[in-house]
Amino acid sequence: MPDPFHALESNVVLPVTLQRQLAEFRQKLWRVKVMEAAAAGVIGLLVSFLSVYALDRLGQTPGWVRLVILLGGTAAFAGFGPWWVHRWVWKHRREDELARLIARRYPGLGDRLLGVIELQHFHRGEGHSARLRIAAMEAVAAEVERRKLDDALPPQRHLKWSLAAGVLFLGVVSLFCISPRAGGNAVVRWFLPFSKTERYTFTRLERPPLTLAVPYGEPFEVRLMLAKDSDRRPPAGTGRYGLQPPLNAPLKNGAYVFTFPGQQEPGQVVFKIGDLRHVMRVEPVQRPSVESIVAHVTPPEYLGIPARDIDLKSGGLSAVSGSKLEIKLITQRPLRAAVYGPFHGDGDEVSGELQIEGHTATSPPLSVGNAPFEIPFIWTDEFGMTGDAGFRVRVDVLPDAAPAIYLQGIDRQKVLLPEETVDFELLAEDDFGVRLTGIEWKGEFGRPTDEKPAKGELFLGKGGPEERRLTKGIAFSPSAYGITPQRITLRGYAEDFLPGRGRVYSEPVILHVLTRDEHAQMLKAIFDRNISELEDLARRETSLLEENERLEQLPGAQLQGEEAREKLQHQERAEGESAERMKDLKQNMEQLMQDAARNGQIDKDTLKKMAESLRSLQELSGKDLPEVKEKLGDCQDPSSTPDKASKDMADAVDRQKKALEKMQASIESARDANKRFEAGTFVNRLKKAASEQEGIAGALVQAFSRILGVRMQTLDPSDQRRLGEVNRQQLNTAADIRWLQEDLAHYFARTQQEPFREILTAMRDEKIDVGLDELSKQILSNHSFQATDHSKRWAGKLNEWAARLGEKLGAAQQGGGEGGAPSAEDEDFEFMLRVMKMVQQEQDLRSRTRALEQLRRSHEFSSQP
Q1: Which residues, at least 6 apart from 728, have a Cβ–Cβ distance to it below 8 Å?
Q2: In terms of Cα–Cα distance, which of 537, 535, 499 is closest to 300?
Q3: SS3 call for 223
Q4: Domain residues of the chain, as ranges?
Q5: DSSP-based three-state secondary structure for 470
Q6: What CATH superfamily classification does 201-285 receive?
Q7: Which one of 141, 164, 357, 668 has the fewest CB atoms closer than 10 angstroms to its CB?
């Protein structure tokens, strides 16, 4: 049977009432301390957040400060709370730990309570009876029951701390309600202290710059735009550059504009606007300048000129209309942006952006119109600084001008025979290259004829885009090109590369291609002028001789006087002028001699007399007159003695007399030649009149099919005009015949040569002047058949008289040779004349060959596709 006492000893525990009281005490302790731990953690976090919020209102809180605040707040929540719970909860879970806590307030009760708690762990054999332990426990339990263990709890702060946490929480909620963006910003900056989240301010700016490059030494502006969502709009703000006096700027149009003086050293500007404090770094730098500017010019495609680069150091360029330009700017610093324009091209406003590549800005292709213009450029560098706002590139437009063409080495009017060749030069110039050149000619008859006037052209050569000057030699021979005697209008032409322009012509050259008869009449007129010039020179020389003879009579000493010396100087100058005029006359006579020999219809006696006169002129211009001038100069020599001066003056007079005699002999030879020349021209004039009458008849025959039997009033206007031209030619021919009769009468009166009287009598007997007037009336009445018959009749008569006069003149010249053999002098002259003609013929042949070769090349070019 088990022992009851033993059972009692093994089941000694604290009374139930005591256990219940201790459990309530522990539960209340734990609840209070857990609440305190939670409240303390919340207070720490809220205080930490509010600290960041408050500091951000004062200025920019550094990240490390926010980190310290965050760590302090989280330490209260994550460090203090667990430690507090560990201290008051974990370390007060057993009865003995609770007894010790109660002993702090009630030492005696606590000790007794701790003792009875220890008694329940005593076992049998340890000297304590179970009953006694139970009795002790019950006594302590009764004592504890009489007391309030709540008083033994440590100081309770959970209500205060909770109230504080609640107040802080309400404060945070109020902040979020008043300014949610500021609260949200503070949360981010508090929770993420090293994030790049900017401090929220109630005054906000629209992207304020942190750094700013400003022009070196120039005043600069800083424009701070107030953000549209700014909570506050302060009426003014301040800005301070370093330690310089602060500047104020009012709010105007949503911005604060600060104007700072020029700076040369880097610094900081501190702006204060409301609760905003903004710091900006300022770097004074030189404005971005252009190191070089190059234009890439692409000429119009039709020119065939390659594109080229032009260095625009002068700020301008010239380009042909239709070109394309690309402007390239190279600056000292990398660029951020660049624009060109606006400028006006051909009426439209042009502007745009440049393509940026580092230091280089390139414009798109710009068209060059017809008017000059200037292109403004503005660029911004990597610092946002603009360059010179007045930078412009001037573009001068070069219109593709028409070619300029000239015929050089030829007179504007020239007379020649058909077999002669005119050598001249064609010069063509164009600003952008000559494409090709050539000449054109068009003939015009001065009298009615059934022949067609000449018309043609000759290609001379091709040029190229780079050939701005093209020179071509030309040999123009009427006979080589099948041109009969007529008036030729000759023009050079050139073409450039401009599409649709066509040919550009030179000033015309008029070539009078003459018959030999017309040529002889022209030479006669020239010979008359030369004789008149020679006679004038003789009269002038006679006057000079008379003055020199008066000077010769002066004594030697007086001849060296001042008055005589001035007269001698005048005489010397006058003699020099006579020598120069004689030289010019000699050249004219030489050209006349060559032309007369070329004509072939002028008799040799006339040419011989002309040659004698020319020989005298050569001696006078080359020797005689210059010697007289030289002797007059010797008279003025200061080193000469009076006797020497008188001797030199006598020599000058003697030489001048001989020169004057030779001049008179030359005049006589020229007059004799002119008489012979004049006699020969009558034959040519008769032939010319006959040719004109034949031309009139031919023109009427050509129009028979349209004008026969038709009244003048009903004729076609073109036929009326042609008949009018024929009539004018008939009137001119009639006038020439009347002049011819008068000249024949005068010539016969001077020479009394019988052949001229016979021809004059025949013309008067035939009443040719009356017949020609009647012919004119027939033409005006369109009696064309009768007019044609009469015109042919008078042409035959004129040819008959010309042949009769020519025969008689030839017979007279042959009979004048005294019936003997020709002299040696005549034979020499005839030989020289034949040699001269042979040389001329050879030169003409060579020139015509060159002209034909040019014609062949022209045909080859025209046949090319």
Answers
A1: none
A2: 499
A3: strand
A4: 4-180, 201-285, 290-398, 404-514, 517-680, 682-825
A5: strand
A6: Immunoglobulins (2.60.40.10)
A7: 357
Q: Which residues contact 227 (CB under 8 A, 6 or more apart)?
A: 204, 205, 206
**Does pLDDT of 528 surpass 90?**
no
- Range of weakest confidence among 429-443, 516-530, 849-863: 849-863
| Tens of pLDDT, residues 287-325 | 888 888 888 888 888 888 888 888 887 778 888 888 888
Q: Supply the pLDDT for residue 6.
A: 40
CB 494 within 8 A of CB 402: no
d(CA 649, CA 623): 18
DSSP 819-838: TSPPPHHHHHHHHHHHHHHH
Percent of the chain exceeding pLDDT 90 equals 8
Residue positions counted in the chain? 865
pLDDT at 817 exceeding the cut of 70: no
| Per-residue model confidence as pLDDT tens digits over 644-655 | 888 888 888 898
- Report H helices in 600-641: 604-619, 625-635
- Closest C-alpha to 832, from 608, 648, 664: 608
Q: Do domains 201-285 and 517-680 have the same CATH topology?
A: no
Residue 205 DSSP symbol: B
Question: Euclidean distance between the first and final Cα of the chain, in Å?
Answer: 152
Residue type, 454: A
Fold of 517-680: Methane Monooxygenase Hydroxylase; Chain G, domain 1 (1.20.58)
AA letter at 265: E
* CATH no., domain 404-514: 2.60.40.640
> What residue type is 575 in one-letter code?
E
What sign does the dihedral 454-459-465-466 (CA atoms) show? negative
Model's pTM, two decimal places?
0.58
Beta-bridge partner residues of 212: 282
**Model pLDDT, residue 493:** 92
Report how far residue 660's alpha carbon sits from residue 674's, in angstroms, rounded to the nearest whole number.
20
What is the bridge-based pairing of β-strands 211-215 and 276-285?
Answer: parallel
Whole-number mean pLDDT of the chain? Answer: 79
Q: From the CA atom positions of the chain, what is the Rg in Å?
A: 66
Task: For residues 636-642, give the mean pLDDT.
Answer: 82
Phi first, then psi: what are they for 428, rounded to 5°? Answer: -120, 135
Residue tagged 């309570």 (tokens): 113
CA angle 727, 731, 737 (to 5 degrees): 140
- 423 forms beta bridges with 475
Say if CB 87 and CB 108 are below 8 A apart.
Answer: no
Give 492's pLDDT tier (boundaries 50, 70, 90). Answer: very high
Give the mean model confidence (pLDDT) for residues 11-31.
68
The answer to whether 149 and 102 are in contact (CB under 8 A) is yes
- Determine if the peptide bond prior to 453 is cis (ω within 30°): no
Q: Would the pLDDT of 818 be above 50?
A: no
Beta-carbon count within 10 A of 626 CB: 17
SS (H, E, C) 364-421: CCEECCCCCEEEEEEEEECCCCECCCCCEEEEEEECCCCCEEEEECCCCEEEECCCCC
Q: Which residue has the higher pLDDT, 157 or 795?
A: 795
- Tokens in use for 734? 């009639």
CB atoms within 10 A of CB 287: 18
DSSP string for residues in 56-73: HHHS---HHHHHHHHHHH
Cβ neighbours of 658 (radius 10 Å): 13
CB 303 within 8 A of CB 368: no
* DSSP secondary structure of 168-200: HHHHHHHHHHH-HHHHHHHHHHHHSTTS-PPPP
**CATH fourth-level superfamily of 290-398:** Immunoglobulins (2.60.40.10)
Task: Provide the pLDDT for residue 494.
Answer: 92
pLDDT at position 837 over 70 = no
